[in-house]
Write a structure and sequence with these properties.
This protein is of the alpha+beta class and 486 residues long. 43% of the residues lie in helices and 24% in strands. It contains 17 helices and 17 strands. Strands 9-10-13-14-15 form a five-stranded antiparallel sheet. The chain has a four-stranded antiparallel sheet with strand order 1-5-6-7. A four-stranded antiparallel sheet has the order 2-3-4-8, with helices on one face. Helix 3 packs across helix 5, helix 3 packs parallel to helix 9 and helix 15 packs across helix 17. The N and C termini lie far apart (59 Å). About 1% of the residues have low confidence.
């Protein structure tokens, strides 16, 4: 790039060069991402879960203050003792209506870079699985590629492992930028645990040359790892990445006023514990039983769950602090349950996600505090009602009509169709039990009333096969309606 050569000749740091490249990469920069402080323009040029990157222009002038959107050209000129950065300004409302852009020039004497580093948000997230683990590694590698100074000592020590984990994502490939071998470290770990199938899969991934097929191989590989068998290795990796994040604050703790955050956490803690849950913020749990047969389809992830009546359950609520912007605090209540076989089982989110004692059921209820409605009025969601909804969903209790409206439950065709394979199988199985029972009852009645001679004709003349499929169809319709409205 011509721009890179110019900046390098004038002694700007590599981080500053990358900040300029990020600025040119983004199609638009909104007004809120540019801060004027003293004689600096501070432009946010990169946002991730793990860090924010800022391009700082000293003695900067020329930004149209009345505009709301800006685009920057990949062009900088040196004019005397100043640099000139070129761009176009737009009114936000007309940007997509082919508004005539307003050209502008930012003049500055020097450029620098700064970053704010956070604990990667996925560490505090839920659900947690192999894909999320790789996303955590991805964020750490992203920091390294921007500047190795953004990494702490532990992150640097495990960087080769994180690069290999990040490379397992279908959209990531750092083998050239990071200059490491393919999956040497991962293969050593899989060998240590005796996992032969993943070893063969990694070799296949290494040798695949077509990008489209490679992406599918990676996606299938991560899905295959989400089984109980591979949980011990997952725990080892998760402990490694979690330990590297010690010392960082999560983003919301850095942006939200501390007193407000503490007060909200206390309110949530009191309301959830009042529902009989144990634990401490952000993780709560309660043991219980299913009162009746439950068939659930996740709202966000259309995967089906079947729970028998009187099954022992472990109910979970995890409070995931989402974002804090412009005095608005957003929290997700991740609620769910799993069938358990051991009454002494301790609550464990990782075990829950790996189906250690049954298939988990998960829903997410969002809570927004201090946000502006359509009419511009400052409002908040009802925290107590949101927690009531979360507890009911975790405990497989039917929501009231008002709660369904508040939760905005949508029974999409995709979610309903997700139930069909399991409900059809159950219908066929139940019908297979019912019909022999009727046959046996018919034989007993014939014997009781001295009609044993009618038994052969009963089996011969009654269309049992047709009745089997009719009864299976009726049972299937009942399951289908149940999945729609319960």
């Amino acid at each position: 790039m011509e721009i890179k050569n110019l900046i390098m000749l004038n002694g700007f740091s590599n981080e500053t060069i990358k900040a300029f490249e990020k600025l040119f990469y983004y199609e638009t920069v909104i007004k809120e991402d540019i801060e004027t402080k003293d004689n600096w323009y501070i432009i946010r040029v990169g946002i991730s879960e793990a860090f924010d990157a800022f391009l700082m222009l000293e003695n900067a002038t020329g930004l149209p203050k009345e505009a709301n959107l800006y685009t920057f050209f990949e062009k900088i000129e040196k004019q005397g003792n100043e640099y000139v950065l070129f761009g176009n300004a737009y009114d936000e409302l007309d940007f997509y209506d082919s508004q005539t852009p307003i050209p502008f020039e930012i003049r500055f004497t020097n450029a620098d870079f700064k970053a704010k580093v956070y604990k990667t948000g996925h560490i505090e997230g839920f659900p947690i699985d192999w894909c999320v683990l790789c996303e955590i590694a991805f964020e750490i590698v992203e920091k390294y590629l921007f500047s190795k100074e953004l990494l702490n000592e532990e992150e640097m020590n495990y960087l080769p492992l994180f690069i290999e984990l990040a490379n397992l994502l279908s959209y990531s490939d750092y083998k050239n930028d990071a200059k490491v071998s393919e999956y040497t470290i991962l293969k050593q770990f899989f060998s240590k645990y005796g996992f032969e199938k993943p070893l063969k899969r990694l070799v296949k991934i290494e040798n695949e040359g077509k990008n489209e097929k490679l992406s599918k191989l990676k996606e299938r590989f991560l899905e295959e790892l989400d089984f109980k068998k591979y949980e011990p290795l997952f725990r080892e990796f998760f402990e490694i990445v979690s330990n590297t994040q010690n010392g960082y604050k999560i983003r919301i703790e850095c942006n939200c006023p501390f007193e407000k955050l503490v007060d909200t956490r206390k309110q949530i803690d009191l309301l959830i514990k009042a529902k009989g849950y144990e634990g401490e913020y952000p993780f709560y749990y309660k043991k219980g039983k299913a009162n009746s047969i439950k068939i659930k389809v996740r709202k966000y992830y259309p995967k089906k769950t079947f729970v028998f009546a009187n099954s022992d359950l472990m109910h979970y609520i995890y409070c995931r602090e989402n974002t804090y912007t412009n005095d608005s605090l957003y929290i997700d209540f991740c609620c769910g349950c799993e069938a358990i076989n051991d009454s002494e089982q301790k609550p464990d989110l990782i075990s829950f996600m790996f189906n250690s004692n049954g298939k988990p059921y998960i829903e997410i209820v969002d809570y927004s505090q201090n946000y502006y409605g359509e009419d511009g009025e400052l409002i908040s969601d009802d925290l107590e009602q949101r927690i009531n909804i979360s507890c009911k969903l975790a405990e497989l209790i039917k929501l009231s009509k008002s709660e369904r409206n508040e939760y905005k439950t949508n029974y999409s065709l995709k979610a309903v169709l997700a139930m069909l394979p399991m409900s059809i199988a159950l219908s066929l199985f139940i019908a297979l039990i019912i019909l022999p029972a009727f046959m046996l009852l018919g034989v007993l009645l014939c014997l009781i009333f001295g009609l044993s001679s009618e038994i052969p004709s009963m089996f011969r003349d009654i269309p049992w096969l047709r009745l089997y499929f009719i009864s299976a169809g009726i049972i299937e319709i009942v399951f289908f309606i149940y999945s729609l409205f319960y």
